[in-house]
Amino acid sequence: MRVSGKVFRRIIAVIGAAAMASLGSTAMAQDESGFQNYLVSLKAKAVAEGITQPTIQSVFPTLTLNERVIELDRGQPGGSSSGPIPAYAPYYARHVDDARIALGRAAYQRLRGKLAGIERETGVPESIMVSIWGNETAYGAVTGGFDLPRSLATLAYEGRRRDLFEREFLATLKLIDMGFSRASLQGSWAGATGGPQFLPSVYLRLGKDGDGDGRADIWNSDADALASIGNYLVNAGWRPGVPWGIPVDVPAGLNVGRLANKTVSPRCPRVHERHSAWHTMKEWRQMGIVPERGYWPDDHILATLLEPDGPGKTAYLLTHNYRVILDYNCSNFYALTVGLLADQVAQ
User: Fold this and answer.
1) Other Cβ atoms closer than 10 A to 169
2) Which residues make beta-bridge pairs with 260?
3) Is the pLDDT confidence value at 50 over 50?
4) Going by fewer Cβ within 10 Å, which terminus of the chain is more open, N or C?
């Protein structure tokens, strides 16, 4: 029987699709098989870390490879240090909007009883803690729905950052050993969890009880989430009584290029290279800098200058405490938004 070229091509297409589907399912099976083999070594590390047998026996048999987590991880931006930096003003408009300010003020007022005590203990302003909480999880409303043990085991198996994610997986098992339920240990695909969006190992170091019940539950207690944020900032070097920064106007005649920072930061260099050299508030005032709100911090406080939208737009004098916020998330847009939202929340 003679087969037409059109029919022949259709037959080949069907056969090819079936073959590809078979190959795809085989690849998936091989990945799952490899993952299960990897879990043998991961279980041995859990035993060596002192994880209890009930936790090991309840978690490991349930673990399967999460292809979605791998997809999200591989889809991350490449982190190129080249290319133009976008303007900050549009980002600010999206992240310090009326709704987020209103929700922040409501949370601020609702939790003042707990927040005031946390501020007295840590020196971190209540509004800064609330602002970070708002930026991280929309004040606790959006904390992530990925199962931490499965996500972290998957990322460890993938291997690009195996040491990091093995450590975070084992830290998650320790949380289960501490009595936190598997169901509560949800978070982002990359393992950030709870109100502060801590990695599990960060929680083990810096989780703090804020409601006085003797347990730091950043998943179910707003006060604990906020106290843990405050504790993180203290650990990163927060200085009580120092503002994060102030918005300012820069005179047109000031040679900002002459004030450039000549040092290179070992961490997030592209973030820090946009900051000027350090000068005291008094020195900035003498250069003709004018605060937009008519307020000058103490003369001796050191600050750097950042013009996120270029000359002629709002600029910022940024203190040591701004650098502490960068330790939470090393992005100028993030840290500026935390400071500016905090200012709005506290009004």
Assistant:
1) 27
2) 276
3) yes
4) N
Percentage of residues of the chain with pLDDT beyond 90: 84
Residue 210, φ and ψ in degrees, nearest 5: -115, -15
What is the DSSP code string of 271-313? Answer: HHTTSB--EEHHHHHHTT-EETTS----TT-EEEEE-TT-TTS
Strand, coil or helix: what is 338? helix
Q: Which helix (H) or strand (E) holds 30?
A: helix 5-48
Nearest-angstrom CA–CA distance, 275 and 271? 8
- For residue 178, the 8-state DSSP code is T
pTM of the model: 0.89
Mapped onto helix, strand or coil, the DSSP state of residue 88 is: helix
Report the distance separating Cα 241 and Cα 210, nearest Å: 21
**Residue 2 region by backbone torsions, left for phi larger than 0, else alpha for psi between -120 and 50, else beta:** beta
Alpha-carbon torsion angle 195, 197, 201, 206, nearest 10: -50
Mean per-residue pLDDT of the chain: 90
